[in-house]
Write a structure and sequence with these properties.
- The chain has 723 residues and is an alpha+beta fold.
- The chain is built from 20 helices and 24 strands.
- It folds into 4 domains: 182 residues, Endonuclease Chain A (Endonuclease, Chain A); 88 residues, Sandwich (Immunoglobulin-like), CATH 2.60.40; 259 residues, no CATH class; 68 residues, no CATH class.
- 34% of the residues lie in helices and 18% in strands.
- Helix 19 packs antiparallel against helix 20.
Length: 723
């Protein structure tokens, strides 16, 4: 509907001296009437009809020859279809046997291929050619010659160059000629007609569409009796049956099943489950919208397409689109109306000179805080990239299924990058290409850390010099959460991953993202401490609220995904003895900010969380030797301590003092779960946890309330965690 409007049944220009018209049968006009109109004043010398089905009485052929009495009429017949056995004056036509044509033999590869094409070709005295092709058979109902016309669609090509039949490969040889009486009529009922005869349902479903949580059914009639809507998965198994009292021609239904597995729909009777309609495939609005031909997303969609075809090395080319994604800014504006391509006059003139399929100038900006705005967020580049990364992970798991068991037993923290036995990949990749991939990876982590730690959100750079400095109250958005999940997927995919390379006849081993190193964003541990720490610190202000149900549900789903992936990321690191407090506080804050805040919610959801975490950990490609023991510690110690701390707060049980090295929880200033670095008699505490700023003097992540100076915080009461 966004394409430019054109006149119905009129020729549109194509390159190479050709034109095309889109023809179809309507209540007011038919394909045949449109063909006659478009060939008015043309002197037709020869017509070639190709079709698997003709009227038994040859009504369509008679109409053709009556309309163009001076033309030679060639008729190609396939005996497996329907033959015009009762055609009058058959000597006025030249018949050809489809089975005897070279085209049939070439397509069939030694076997005689059944004809399915429908073509009506016209030659003129001036060597201009016309060709009708599409779904319409050469029958009175197909072309719309009789009072009853089928719903058919065809293209009508006009060419000044000619040779259309040669391009198709249809050459009519004299040896293929055959009199009509020599053709043997097919007495068997065709598969098409057998299906139609056996499916005479009272209701015809025309289409079914999912638009977020709404299923819209389009049928040919209204039905005044109760019907049941049967919903099927891709394996043709019923997922759910929903009753409708009165079926409208366009009927909307709210549903609560996973649209990713919803594949087919059919109407049934409510008493005996008898089929009342045909079964059709359900179209998903969101899936279709992701591949909308927006030229701004052309390269992104190309890379995603390559990824879906198994070209996994393109994963790192995608993350650039997540870096530049500004779908949600702090002021609430959308990239849809703030980041339009700005091109200079020269480029504008160049574009104007080129033929355009459609004009984007008609698109209207989407207002913030509207359902359309939130709808657009679900099609953001970041979400597209996240989907692609998950797909790449699944595909690469399938490719490496034979070595998964061995990889699970490896201790990737000991990988040095020099031992050939550490790397199982046989294919050698050029070093320059690997280094370019590594730069893309590091660039993403650098940009995300800068965004979280400095540009957005943890520091208010306008107020840092003021004595009453306060942290920003920014709430994390859907886009922020998506970028964070992309970072976790990259850590899972590339953390500890190595490639064998050949450089000057030497075999070397290249690691994308080392597991250990300094606390920088160029290794797994550094990314976990900085990016995960900062994200959990930001989460103290909560998450942005959305009004659109589907957006809200998607946001909640991504939060749960982040909870699972964060726990697995933290558990899959070999923490040194003096880093165990990082390990514990990261897990506690993950549960606190991404999980639940009451004992009732914890009791309801914790077992499922532990199951999901273990399942995610099973699919890790590069597992550390400590993964299993640290997951066990998380389940048996951290979860219990977390639940106990919430129970104490609900019961009003607080401690009035904490000692150095103890883990505490306090809601004051949003410090969350931290550990005590120092304490005074006046209950002034210096607290630490990943997510606070790094202090070189203390060599810790210290609670800063300014740029370079930290100040102890006074706590009168707190919850002490027994870990």
């Amino acid at each position: 509907m966004e394409l430019p409007k054109v006149a119905d049944f009129q020729f549109l220009n194509l390159p190479n001296n050709e034109q095309v018209a889109f023809l179809y049968n309507t209540a007011k006009t038919t394909i045949w009437q449109q063909v006659k109109q478009l060939t008015t004043n043309e002197k037709i010398t020869e017509i070639t009809a190709v079709s698997p089905y003709y009227d038994t009485q040859g009504k369509a052929l008679e109409e053709i020859i009556n309309t163009f009495p001076n033309a030679q009429i060639n008729v190609v017949i396939d005996e497996s279809g329907t033959i015009p056995t009762e055609l009058q004056n058959e000597k006025r036509y030249v018949f050809y046997d489809w089975k005897e044509l070279d085209l049939c033999r070439n397509i069939g590869a030694e076997q005689q291929s059944k004809l399915h094409a429908k073509i009506l070709h016209f030659n003129t005295k001036g060597n201009r050619e016309f060709c009708l092709f599409g779904s319409a058979n050469i029958t009175s109902a197909g072309l719309g010659i009789s009072n009853t016309a089928n719903s058919e669609l065809s293209l009508f090509l006009k060419s000044e160059n000619g040779n259309i039949l040669d391009k198709i490969g249809l050459k009519l040889k004299a040896s293929s000629k055959k009199s009509l009486s020599k053709f043997v009529a097919n007495i068997r009922l065709s598969i098409e007609h057998a299906i139609i005869r056996n499916n005479q349902f009272p209701i015809k479903l025309l289409a079914a569409e999912i638009n977020y949580t709404t299923l819209t059914l389009y049928s040919n009639i209204e039905f005044d009796k109760p019907v049941a809507v049967a919903m099927y998965d891709s394996h043709n198994q019923i997922i759910k049956v929903q009753k409708i009292e009165l079926l409208k021609a366009q009927h909307e239904i709210n549903f609560d099943i996973d649209e990713n597995i919803f594949r087919y729909v059919q109407l049934q009777s409510t008493d005996d489950n008898k089929s009342l309609s045909n079964k059709i495939i359900v179209s998903n609005y969101l899936t279709i919208a992701k591949t909308h031909p927006n030229p701004k997303n052309a390269e992104l969609e190309r890379l995603c397409g390559q990824l879906q075809n198994g070209e996994l090395r393109n994963v790192l080319d995608l993350i650039h689109y997540a870096i530049i994604d500004e779908s949600e800014k702090e002021d609430g504006t959308s990239i849809i109306n703030t980041t339009r391509n700005k091109i200079n006059d020269k480029e504008e003139k160049k574009e104007a000179d080129q033929s355009q399929l459609y004009d984007l100038s008609g698109y209207k900006p989407i207002e913030p805080n509207s359902h359309l705005y939130e709808n657009a967020l679900l099609l953001s580049p970041s979400l597209r990239v996240l989907d692609a990364l998950k797909l790449a992970h699944t595909q690469s798991l399938d490719l490496e299924v034979d070595i998964r068991t061995d990889e699970q037993e490896d201790d990737i923290s000991s990988i040095s990058g020099n031992d050939e036995s550490e790397v199982r990949k046989e294919k050698s990749v050029p070093l320059k290409l690997l280094e370019a991939d590594k730069r893309k990876l590091k660039n993403f982590f650098k940009n995300l850390y800068t965004y979280f730690h400095r540009d957005t959100l943890l520091t208010d750079t306008n107020n840092m010099a003021k004595p009453n400095y306060k942290e920003t109250k920014y709430k994390l958005t859907l886009t922020d959460l998506t970028k964070y999940l992309i970072a976790l997927e990259l850590i899972h995919e590339f953390g500890g991953k190595s490639e064998k390379i050949e450089n000057e006849q030497q075999q070397l081993f290249f690691t994308y993202l080392p597991v250990t190193g300094d606390y920088e964003n160029d290794n797994v541990k550094g990314c976990c401490l900085n990016i995960v720490g900062d994200f959990l610190r930001l989460a103290k202000n909560g998450f942005k609220e959305y009004s659109f149900d589907y957006t809200r549900n998607k946001f909640e789903q991504l939060q749960f995904d982040a909870l699972i992936s964060t726990i697995v990321c933290i558990a899959n690191i070999n923490w040194k003895e003096d880093e165990k407090l990082y390990f514990k506080t990261l897990l506690l804050n993950t549960l606190h900010y991404l999980g639940w805040v009451s004992t009732t919610e914890i009791a309801k959801n914790l077992n499922n969380l532990i199951t999901q975490v273990k399942e995610k950990a099973k699919n890790l490609k590069h597992a550390t030797s400590n993964l299993d023991s640290q997951l066990e510690y998380f389940e048996n110690r951290v979860c219990k301590a977390f639940r106990y701390s919430i129970s104490n707060r609900e019961d009003g049980k607080f401690a009035d003092r904490a000692e150095i090295g103890q883990i505490i929880y306090s809601s004051i200033a949003g410090v969350g779960y931290c550990y005590v670095v120092s304490a005074t008699r006046q209950n002034e505490y210096c607290l630490a946890r990943p997510g606070f700023n790094w202090n070189d003097q203390k060599n810790e992540y210290i609670n800063h309330f300014g740029d370079n100076i930290y100040s102890p915080i006074r706590l009168i009461k707190m919850t002490i965690i027994d870990l």
